[in-house]
Amino acid sequence: MGKRITKSFKPQNTWVRQLVNADPEIGTNLDYTNETLRLQARDNLCSICKGSKMLCGMTRCPIVQQAISHTKMWRNIKGLNIDGSSPPSVFVGRFGYPYVQIGPMTPTSYGDTSLLDDTERWFGRSMDEIIDFRSQLVRGMTTVNVNRIDKAGKIFEATRELSLAEHYVETELKLNKPPLKRLYIDNDIQPIGPTAPLNEIEIGFIKWEHNMEKAHYDSDLKAAEAAKTLYKNGVNVNSIMRAFSMGSFGIEKNRRLVPTRWSITAIDDLLSKDMANRIKDYPFINNYQVYESEYLGNRFEVLLIPDAWSYEAYEAWYPKTLWNPSESNINIVTDWEGYSGRCHYASMGGCYYSGRLAVLEFLTKIRRQAKVFIFREAYPDYIIPVGVWQVRENVRNAMRQKPKRFENINDALKQVMNRLSIPLEKWIESGPLLKHTLTQRKITEYT
Amino acid sequence: MFEVEISRIDPLRNLIKALSVIVEEGTFIMNEAQVKLLAMDPSHVAMVDFELPSEFFDKYKCEGEPRLSINIKEFLKFLDRVDRDEDVWINLNEEKARLIINCRRGGHNRRFEMPILEPLDEEVPQPKIFFKAKARIITNSLKMAIRDADLVSEHVKVAVEGETLKISATGDMGSASSEWEKGSDDLIELKSEEDSSATFTLSYLNEIVNAAGNSSEVATVELSTDMPIKMDFELPRGKLVYYLAPCIGV
Predict the structure, then answer these.
(1) Does B12 have pLDDT greater than 90?
(2) Domain that residue A374 falls in
(3) Which of A161, A283, A314, A360 has the lowest tally of Cβ within 10 angstroms?
């Protein structure tokens, strides 16, 4: 086994080495030190890194470590054979890309376990319940080259089948080692429970979701198109992400594995981009609307303005909240896009796209166009990052509520600010779009 | 029925490019004498008033008052495919709801068809503004000043103070300003009833001046304090006027 792995690691990026040999100056330019990264991130290091980039130079994020210590619940997982009904659930890691750890996840219980992986049904559950859901799932793993899925072997095949399942599937995992009792938490993906290398997998009867089955066998359909079609046919976002991450869709030769973390944002992005283009044909909403929702220590205020589509998301971390260990400073992270969208990855990360998806779902439903602001305040009781699904479901919940309606922007903003604890000036100075909205007149006012 | 022929695509392409910086979907109104477009950007901040007389084209045929609604950016993509030395022949097929672009060079014919859209019933009203100051200026000189401002800020202040026209911007990076005195080479004419100044979003202004500057050498800028700016880009044939709403309280 070990031999095979060593063999598969060919020297990577040899051109970089040749380049550096030819001109040592280039090498010095390629060298990113912690200092240069820190300079870009300035003082709000943690709210930009969110435990993923290790900007502070430590090998483990102290905040994440602290959060883990809050979770003390472990199931009795014994032996090397794990069997139960998989919700279904799969995971594709991102470390070592393109050689990543993939594998199925299953609890040790039988029956309808679908709730354990269905983030779209989690809204309203407490932090403890969510950690409980995730710590039940045992994750088996095996190394696969994301680009060579045709040669990935039986474990991969079975895992991919799982990802396309409509219901829970009886699954048996034969592990090489007893699972490590740890919880992997991340800002983008839901927590991941005990993990162990996988030797063999057996799965029971599977019924594939028929829309996904069709897309899977259509080897001329692009992955993005497949995702959009599935979404239009009512397949839930969570299932699309799961199957997408296993490289189930796309033009045959382009199919590859996508780390779960990336696939979540990829799907959020491509579905909402499509909807953003469609709502541009709809008329503006009639008045200023404010929606709100609070869940897991996160308050969201959504402000819709009768104007052409554009979007700005704000995320404020109070002192001593999760991604802001500072004693006194408030960190506001923001990103925005204009009418024609954006082409660079939003600096605030996956939650930008999740929020956008939730709001656009609503606008598509009511067939109206609006300028959208999402204000998020995270409070100290948000102790563990649970994944961007929290943003998506929280904003979806906000959009389900009855809005407060206003005739002008000042009244609407006053309502928003009454519900938030950070004053308006702070929000205005951290992002360009709100400021622009407040100062820019319209030509129609002068006719 | 609408049909035009033109032997050089560049002037037309530049004008459509100048429209595309503001207009997403526009409705052209054609009659025997001219093609007209009055349109706003999606967020109603800027407006363009565009006219192209029949003399602009080598051949011009139009019956009745057909309307042509198209996505300007898509139209531009088709025009970009046309080569400089090709003869172009554009006609509107209302039955099939298609705009047809034919290019010809020697015996080689190329043909593009693009779908036209449902005409928008959006009424676009002309702004009614009494301008207090007016400056006629070389477009290139104006373009330089706007680009300078773009270096330091997102907003730019345009002012006529006494006998000078001033374009200035201040930001975190520093400041930039241009001043033209009355009688200077680039400032052809300056008239003002009173001192006027207004601030505008640079992203709009920059795109407008850059794109319109390709078709026009002289522009007339009209201004009033905290009111929209009117920029009339003089064309050899035709009319290209932009209005841009100000920013207040920046």
Answers:
(1) yes
(2) 275-446
(3) A283
